[in-house]
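NADP-dependent 3-hydroxy acid dehydrogenase YdfG, pasting as requested.
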Amino acid sequence: MRTALITGATSGIGEACAHLFAQQGYRMILVARKQDKLEKIAKHFADKYAVEIKTLIADVRDKVAVTDILEGLPGDWKQVDVLVNNAGLSLGLEPIDQGDTSDWDTMIDTNVKGLLYVTKIVSNWMISNKKGHIVNIGSTAGKEVYPGGNVYCATKHAVDALNKGMRVDLLPHGIKVTAVNPGMVETEFSKTRFKGDEARADKVYEGLEPLIAQDIADAIWFVVSRPAHVNIDDMIIRPTAQANSYVTNRK
Ligand code: NDP
Ligand code: 8X3
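Structure tokens follow.
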């Protein structure tokens, strides 16, 4: 039986991944902060696909809590085949001189440090198990910088660098490492970025067909289902109507 650990599984890309991995018969460890939502999602997929699911209610920014909760798993749950480092967010779109420093802290602590805390623990399990695949959810914001993207883009550029670093460091252990970098995906992402302003969030996707979370889950499934000798290092996926962060074809 194969096991996947997915962070940020209460909505969007993480939830879609949990759905797809459950469909594929994976046992799963799902991590997020919203307890009710996570437990509901886990129960739904466990019942529907007859797979075992453990829910870990944790804030990935909290190094001690993350370490305790992961290390507290029973030994056989530490046989993780796939880690999807997905938990992340953007907050605000102000120019650098007007940015909110607590938003900056949250983005850096979640997207970079949280990803590192989880990876440190799970990569050690993978080394002991002599196998594993880490999928880092980066972004096109890790490849380009757009106005007001400053700190969010910096965190995703960091994920891009960490993906390359992990690939090098974990090579001797036979562990696969992949970055999946989405462009515009309609999830809770923009509502979070604009702090609940739904009208502003909807405008991001106005006049074009954005990706949906399922598109990214499908790409993640593609990378993890390649033969043992194949590693996809880096993948960029955008809506057909988005050429880059600035050029879109809106009707
Ligand atoms: P959503 O807002 O829909 O989902 C974000 C998930 O991250 C939620 O499950 C949330 O769960 C979790 N999360 C956020 N902060 C924490 C935390 N501190 N600890 C634990 N979990 C946390 O957005 P997406 O699905 O779109 O985003 C998923 C990833 O994809 C992010 O890394 C994002 O940067 C990236 N991405 C998104 C794109 C898009 O256009 N949507 C494009 C490119 C990349 P909870 O609140 O319950 O903790
Ligand atoms: C999310 C995509 O373009 O809003 O990472 O930065 S974008």
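Note for the archive: The chain has a mean pLDDT of 98.
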